[in-house]
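Entry 14. Structure prediction run on the chain below.
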Amino acid sequence: MGKVYERIDGRLRTFIEQQKIFFTATAPLDGDGTVNLSPKGLAGSFAVLDEQTVAYLDFAGSNAETIAHLRENGRITLMWCAFTGPPNIVRVHGRGEPVFRDDPRFAGLVEHFPEVDTDAHGLRAVIVVTAELIRDSCGFAVPYLDYREERALHGDRFRREDDASLSAYFEKKEHIARSIDGLPGLPLPLPPGPA
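Output returned:
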């Protein structure tokens, strides 16, 4: 039933871009380390950059496990499930990199997300993923779920922050500068955004 793809294009790209939520999975190299699985879903925060490369916006919030794991080893899997329409699951296995706000590539990457008010959400980094294996599977057991609307809570919470207050917020939170397993996470103080 499953198929392996050489690139993200056509019907596969359309499917990925239509989904309201996707999941990221990362892990440290240490076999006893903590595996991380995160939902992502803010409208407009995911983009296909080319047939082998995708990116998503990493915002203020809970921990920085994904960033820590990517900084250590780069391994990441992204997964989309069809909750409406024909059943389908797509996974992109690859290498990811957090591109921080002081990186010269940051401003150009952010241009791929015109729908998102990045100032309103405490943007920390753009995660860029280069696909090494692209595959799908049936999704027959994935239930139908209905999308209602976006939550305004995240934007409402972080819209009032500036770089200084956001850095102070991150410095007070556990597992931002260092992961659960003690790996380097988000650089603090928060790198300044592009001028």
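The beta strands are 3-5, 22-26, 36-40, 46-50, 53-59, 75-81, 89-100, 123-137.
Filed with the rest of this week's runs.
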